[in-house]
Design goal:
This protein is α+β, with helices and mostly antiparallel strands and 313 residues long. It folds into 2 domains: 141 residues, no CATH class; 126 residues, Sandwich (Immunoglobulin-like), CATH 2.60.40.10. Helix content is 56%, strand content 23%. It contains 3 helices and 10 strands; from the N terminus they run αααββββββββββ. The radius of gyration is 59 Å and the shape is rod-shaped.
Length: 313
């Protein structure tokens, strides 16, 4: 009986040892599995962190490129506006140099969270500085546009004023011309008679050039109540067949339409606002008359008041 009891105790102890060993193995497996899962989770976290850092790095690179483009555009706008002074150029160059240092830092330590954090702060400060410059430029552009608009308005106003002034001058010129025309004298019944004067003084109308001694131009100044009464100077021009003015002194002239015209003869008359008969007796001088058509023009007060023709054979 004692032997059986001893065997039973030994058998029970063996079972206990086996159970303990099994428990130990299970615990060891659980520990190994825990460590394995923990390592997988750590690896996953690390991979996620690295991916996030890469995304941040790419984002920073993109922001740096964009910032440089905006600075270049700001520089061009300043140049186009004529605002690219040395001081402003130096400020933009300094901003570009800062971006270049950020590129280098991102290239050497772009996956370092501390580097990325520092670059983000620098970019934010640089963006604020760039926005401030852009705001200054925009304000200057608005000022220039406002001045340009005002200048254009002033120019338009001056142009309109000039047009109105020109129109007023033109209208006044028209009125003055019409007034002058209404006040001008008019020569009527103009007759040019070539004459031969005999030794006894007797005058006879002729038509042959070789026989002409003088030409008499007779006409009547019509009554014009709009014209001022008083002394009037009448000018006569005789143009020969060659259209040149027959005159004894080419330096003696009068003004007509802004030109100084030589005349053949002139006469002073007293005009009393009534019909007035006038005669010119013109002697050509030692030079003989030639065959052809002659024109007689009469002027007073800077205006032509009559015209006629005569011919010689």
């Amino acid at each position: 009986m004692e032997i059986d009891s001893t065997q039973e105790r030994r058998s029970g102890a063996g079972k206990i040892i086996v159970i303990v060993a099994l428990i130990f193995l299970v615990v060891a497996d659980i520990f190994l599995l825990y460590n394995l899962f923990d390592k997988d989770e750590t690896i996953a976290k690390n991979e996620k962190s690295i991916k996030t850092l890469n995304v941040t790095k790419d984002s920073l690179e993109s922001e740096i490129v964009t910032m440089q483009q905006e600075i270049d555009m700001l520089k061009k706008q300043l140049s186009d506006m004529g605002e690219s002074t040395t001081a402003k150029e130096q400020e933009l160059a300094k901003m570009t140099a800062t971006l270049n240092r950020m590129k280098q830092a991102l290239g050497s330590g772009g996956l370092d969270p501390n580097v990325q954090s520092s670059l983000k702060k620098q970019l934010a400060a640089l963006k604020q500085e760039k926005d401030s410059k852009q705001a200054e430029l925009d304000a200057k552009k608005r000022e220039i546009e406002l001045l340009s608009s005002r200048n254009q308005q002033l120019k338009d106003s001056l142009e309109n004023g000039k047009k109105e002034t020109d129109k007023a001058k033109k209208d006044k010129g028209i009125v003055d011309k019409r007034l002058k025309e209404s006040q001008a004298l008019k020569a009527d019944n103009i007759v040019a008679i070539p004459l031969k004067v005999s030794s006894s003084g007797k005058e006879k109308p002729v038509t042959k050039a070789s026989k002409v001694t003088k030409v008499q131009i007779a006409f009547k100044i019509q009554q014009n109540l709009a014209s001022e009464a008083g002394a009037k100077t009448l000018y006569m021009r005789v143009l020969g067949p060659d259209r040149s003015v027959i005159t004894s002194n080419a330096n003696e002239t009068f003004t007509f339409d802004g030109d100084n015209l030589p005349y053949t003869d002139k006469k002073e008359i007293q005009y009393d606002n009534k019909d007035t008969n006038v005669k010119f007796n013109f002697k050509k001088g030692s030079t003989a008359y030639t065959k052809g058509n002659y024109t007689v023009e009469l002027y007073e007060g800077g205006m032509m008041i009559g015209k006629t023709n005569f011919s010689l054979k």
